[in-house]
Amino acid sequence: MADAEPDFTNSPFPTSNCFFWLYNYGSTMSKFSFAPALSSAIPTPPRQVIFSGIQPTGIPHLGNYLGALKQWVDLQDSVPSETKLIYSVVDLHAITVPQDPQRLRQYKREVLATLLAIGIRPERSILFYQSSVQAHAELMWILSCTASAGYLSRMTQWKSKLSLSEDANAMDTGSKAKLKLGLFSYPVLQAADILVHRATHVPVGEDQSQHLEFARECATNFNHTYQPHLIAPQTILSPAKRVMSLQEPHLKMSKSHANPLSRILVTDSPQEIKKKVMAARTDSINSVSFDPVERPGVSNLLHLLSILDKQSRSPEELGTLHAGLNLKNFKTLVAETVAESLDGIGARYNEVMSRDDGKYLDHVEKKGAEKARESAEETMALTVSPVYPTLASLAVVALRRPYSSATVSPLSFDLHEAPRGEEKGTPIIFMHGLFGSKKNNRTMSKVLARDLGRNVYALDMRNHGDSPHHERHDYAIMADDVARFMDEHKLEDTTLIGHSMGAKTAMAFALNYPSRTQNIVAVDNAPIDAPLLRSFGKYVQGMKKIEQAGSLVIRQFLLGNLYRPPNEKTQKFKFSLTTLALSLGHLGDFPYRNPDEVRFEKPALFVRGTQSPYIPDEAIPIIGRFFPRFRLVDIDSGHWVIAEKPELFRQAVVEFLGEDKEN
């Protein structure tokens, strides 16, 4: 999908409280399809994403830390750097039971500060309050419309919260008197938390397997009713070990227990930890042995010691090892081991809470929420359209407020001005293809500015040329980039010309911003889902080798993007190789599915390279439905029409735009 600089004489061309959810995206390309109803073409997100959440119930305890939070910290360095880590304080879940507003606000800040104190780095991980991303609640409502009330009635969460028996029914007289809709539908919100980021794998504890199964049910129901955009996640049982109460060893450690000595908070000082461990319930036998039935208290401490043991010894082994200790010395050992595992967290917590008079926490959450909205927006843009047929485009625009926070600015551009005194019309925005840059369209831009008397803005698209890089790369966001560029340069009623990737961007822009578009010229691409040529994957591999070895072996249009960063010996490409490589799987997709819902009613020229596969004959009716005033011009060339047949392309564009201006 790259463009080359055209030569008019010779073409230069000789492409729990804690839950732990993993989003692991594949890279399967969708087949060419147009699907107003069900389709097998599920857009593939570009990277692996790990999501997890914790309820704001105050400062987490040792069980939260060892069961999930420590894993969050470790993942920052154990997974590939391109893996996205998203951690949420799920405050919407908290209000399924009555909450004091002031205390809930404080609890949210305490949990957020604790996550920073244990080692979550905001430059590596996204931290945010669930309520800051409205897509979680919006998708919950959409899922509720197809969720099974009978399935929800069989869930155990609401029964345990209301202290009801496992065979309780939501319609029972006793249940109905206590049960509120929010608590009953809690699993739907949990499913939305998973599905809004399109999870494929979700590590959970055994007690949450039922919730994940329900999330799969929600995805299946949505996909069957509308379009298959939601991914049914698979279960990965978490190896997280359960930490039990110090006072009642048969219960999990919990902040809801009435006795504060039953739990160790991660911010407790060594003195507080020792006080709680020394008060832990044991028995009258003043020795150490592992016997969960007869000696549950001592066995609980051995189990805790085993979790923290650097040699990974079992409770039985540690019971034998420490059999000669009396209980006082054994508890002292346990307390010291726990304190060592939590060393420094309390001090860091206090520092984070007080930094910049609390403004630092607000800053971290604000930035994290912006990034989380970007992540959720991609799924909502897909799910809103089939659910709200008549309001789809308005709903998507509203989600972006007015366009996505993921837009990049400033886009680099070259301005090719019309000859002085010959300005005749509105500006043209010219967009290159994949692996291209504004340089590829330089000569053609100058010619069109001359022949049409119109200023031509040749852009570098995101992740290309001299424009900013960003981890997101799809047509919806590139269209928003163009909208922002037009705002910044006070442009309206423009002509958009785009080749390949730029062509789909032009189409997406026209469908989303029709009032700002005079007409479009789409070069060798169509509003359909179609896989990219295999050669584009090979180009990525070749370019990576060039960066590593400094060898110049790829074609001229690729080499034109090489530059030498300051203080480095080897050359690199200006575009973001990592992001573009991850995006190849979905760059063949088109963000709009149903032309009955959105269309561009103004003139559109489609230029097809007859030796290229990107505008097959079967796509022409679909073009006509999205762009009813379209014209198709065939040029005997491959995919790189502008470079291969520049004069024929120029003639087609000048004729089209000249006629449109007259009309």
List keywords for this structure.
alpha/beta; Rossmann fold; Tyrosyl-Transfer RNA Synthetase; 4 domains; 4-stranded mixed β-sheet; 26 helices; 15 strands; elongated; disordered N terminus
List the helices and strands and how they pair.
Blueprint: E1 18-23, E2 49-54, H1 62-78, E3 84-89, H2 91-94, H3 101-118, E4 125-129, H4 134-144, H5 149-154, H6 157-161, H7 173-178, H8 181-184, H9 186-195, E5 201-204, H10 209-225, E6 234-237, H11 270-278, H12 296-308, H13 315-321, H14 327-341, H15 345-354, H16 359-387, H17 392-400, E7 413-416, E8 428-431, H18 442-452, E9 456-459, H19 475-488, E10 494-499, H20 501-512, E11 517-523, H21 534-549, H22 556-559, E12 562-563, E13 572-573, H23 577-583, E14 604-609, H24 620-626, E15 630-635, H25 641-644, H26 646-662
Parallel strand pairs: 2-3, 3-4, 5-6, 8-9, 8-10, 10-11, 11-14, 14-15
Antiparallel strand pairs: 1-2, 7-9, 12-13
Helix pairs in contact: 3-15, 4-9, 4-16, 9-10, 11-14, 12-13, 12-14, 16-17, 18-26, 19-20
Describe the 3D structure.
The strands form four sheets. The chain has a seven-stranded mixed beta sheet with strand order 7-9-8-10-11-14-15, sandwiched between helices. Strand 2, helix 1 (62-78) and strand 3 form a beta-alpha-beta unit. The chain is of the alpha/beta class. The chain is built from 26 helices and 15 strands.
